[in-house]
Specification:
Length: 347
């Protein structure tokens, strides 16, 4: 009987698998948390309260250096709009510093070149995002404010991608799984992402211009069905590597729909059930801001699910630390990888 299993033996001079530092992953998590809870959460509240133009200048705040600006005076006199906008700017600066820290930690300890460049891309996106926010003020542009929100979602999704590809789970994930379940998950998740970007644009029009309400509602049905199918397909693969991500997609989707209905009811009122919109009520602030944040989380969860499915289907790496040995054969001394083919040639 011929033993055809590939046989490997470590080479004496083999360097062994690269030991990865946990720091890039930790810094990426810190960056995501600071950005979503701080910068994005505050930014969403600023937009909901219409406080984006609390200062007419940028990068200075009220003519002063942003870092030296004393917003305690604004707290004393109850200028909530200035306090929120100023803290949003400070949170944005912190996001920038953490993005620099991410790049530094990746370039110091990350062996994969493409991951190091992903970090640089995130930093570049953060800079563009900051510039868009500043120009929105100096140009007094609502369209730029909307684009600032949309691009912010892409920045957050890229940050989550950094968290994923620097994780232990990513390094240990199975590879080479080209089952129909994984392929279906990849396609459905890709299609959902395309529909979600369109829905994002429609949502921005609702939020900033008060239009496209019913188009956005139609988009919600399409995105809801696609995201449910993508999450369901991922769960049905039974792959551990996809399971939690799929649960996140489905959970965030459910939350997003509930928050969307609340945002609608609290902003426009629902005549049929006698609900009247109360501008800047706590429920309105939470539901409108939450709907913006959950949209970013849905985009991020889908991007991560797409990357995970692609990872599962990708080719396993060629083992560099092992040298193939000739396979043993009980009937022949010819190594299996040198057996004659039907045509007589060796393979
Ligand atoms: C999968 C489903 C949904 C997604 C992905 C989604 C996404 C979005 C996005 C990205 C925004 C704009 C946020 C911003 O620019 O900051 C938005 C705004 C909005 N969406 Fe949705 N949405 C969904 C479902 C719904 C549903 C079901 C409703 C209502 C029934 C709804 C009602 C609204 C309203 C009223 C706004 C404006 C909120 C505001 O003025 O602050 N959405 N949506």
């Amino acid at each position: 009987m011929i033993d055809t299993a590939p046989q490997y033996a470590p080479r004496a001079d083999a360097p062994g698998p690269p030991v990865r530092s946990p720091w890039p992953h930790r810094v990426a998590w810190l960056l995501v948390l600071c950005t979503v809870i701080g910068t994005v959460g505050l930014g969403a509240t600023v937009t909901t309260l219409g406080a984006g133009m609390a200062f007419l200048d940028w990068p200075t705040s009220g003519g002063e250096n942003m870092l030296a600006y004393n917003f305690f005076n604004d707290i004393k006199v109850g200028r909530t709009d200035k306090v929120l906008e100023h803290v949003h700017r400070l949170a944005g600066a912190t996001t920038g510093l953490l993005a620099i820290a991410l790049v530094a930690s990746l370039w110091i300890s990350e062996p994969r070149r493409w991951v190091r460049w992903l970090g640089v891309t995130v930093l570049g996106m953060v800079i563009v995002q900051g510039l868009a926010g500043g120009l929105r003020v100096t140009e007094i542009s609502t369209t730029l404010a909307m684009l600032h929100g949309h691009f912010g979602a892409c920045v957050v999704a890229a940050m989550f991608a950094c968290v994923l590809v620097t994780s232990r789970a990513w390094a240990d994930s199975p590879r080479g799984l080209r089952s129909s379940g994984v392929t279906t998950t990849t396609w459905l998740t890709g299609a959902t992402l395309a529909a979600l970007l369109l829905q994002y644009a429609l949502g921005g029009v609702v939020r900033h211009f008060g239009g496209a309400l019913f188009e956005h509602l139609g988009g919600a049905v399409l995105v809801g069905l696609l995201a449910a199918a993508a999450g369901g397909a991922a769960l049905a693969t039974g792959e551990r590597f996809l399971r939690w991500n799929a649960a996140a997609v489905l959970g965030v989707l459910g939350g997003q729909i509930v928050l969307g209905m609340l945002a609608w009811a609290t902003r426009f009122g629902v005549a049929a059930v006698g609900t009247v919109a109360v501008q800047h009520s706590p429920l309105q602030i939470v539901s409108r801001g939450g709907h913006t944040v959950f949209a970013m989380l849905l985009l991020s969860a889908l991007v991560c699910q797409f990357l995970r499915a692609r990872r599962l289907a990708s080719d396993p790496p060629v083992r560099e630390t092992a040298a193939p040995l000739p396979a043993r054969s009980s009937v022949s001394s010819v190594p299996v990888n040198r057996l004659p083919t039907a045509s007589g040639a060796l393979r």
